[in-house]
Write a structure and sequence with these properties.
Layout (H helix, E strand, L loop, with lengths): L2 H28 L3 E3 L3 E4 L2 E4 L9 E6 L6 H18 L3 E6 L3 H11 L5 E3 L5 H4 L12 E8 L2 E9 L8 H7 L16
Parallel strand pairs: 4-5, 5-6
Antiparallel strand pairs: 1-8, 2-3, 4-7, 7-8
Length: about 190
């Protein structure tokens, strides 16, 4: 297919994706929120309640991260670091993993991450939110919560994985001949 024809067709696909995202946005607004418990999570400074993570915001993003052993979750978190200020201007934002708080801090410091982290280690939080498989493995995703008259309501969630809308790396690679191919993220490159 000629370049001009292909780019026109790709633009049409992108327009359809944008229209579908608008439909999804409307559906999202119509979801009946799910009340959740005020979980106790861990930080290097001690326990913190889910309700405290909102700070002065009404909305809270919780990133379900598989921890320092996952190269993919690390790549996503590296990207969140770049948009953290933008996200935090609208809603509270925290990354939550099964790693112990001290291990989280060491890893976050080594990556230069600026966002807050909490540990759900020894809690049912990840499982209750649907981000722990029956075999015990943790799964990546995002839960969004809203404060509502003293209650914590989950208003949306989605899983994460290669090609999703939350990691631009895949979308850049989609523009290359052969896409990502057999590429996989690494903790360090050379």
């Amino acid at each position: 297919m000629k370049y001009v024809d292909a780019t026109r067709r790709l633009a049409e696909h992108r327009d359809r994706i944008a229209a579908l995202r608008e439909e999804m946005r409307k559906m999202q607004d119509a979801i009946e929120p799910q009340e959740v418990a005020d979980y106790s999570l861990a930080t290097p400074q001690g326990e913190v309640r889910l309700s405290a993570l909102f700070g002065d915001k009404d909305d809270l993003f919780v990133i379900h991260n598989m921890g320092a052993s996952c190269r993919y979750c690390t790549m996503w978190a590296d990207g969140f670091n770049g948009v953290y200020d933008h996200l935090a201007s609208r809603a509270a934002f925290v990354v939550c993993s099964p790693d112990a708080p001290a291990a989280q801090k060491r890893f976050a410091d080594s990556r230069g991450w600026r966002f807050p982290m909490v540990s759900h280690q020894n809690t049912s939080f990840a499982a209750d939110m649907g981000y722990r498989a029956e075999n015990g493995s943790h799964q990546p995703g995002i839960s969004v919560f809203r404060r509502d008259n003293g209650r914590i309501m989950r208003v949306s969630d989605t899983d994460m994985g290669p090609g999703d809308a939350f990691c631009s790396v895949w979308h850049f690679f989609d523009m290359l001949p052969g896409g990502a191919g057999d590429w996989a993220p690494q903790f360090k490159y050379r």
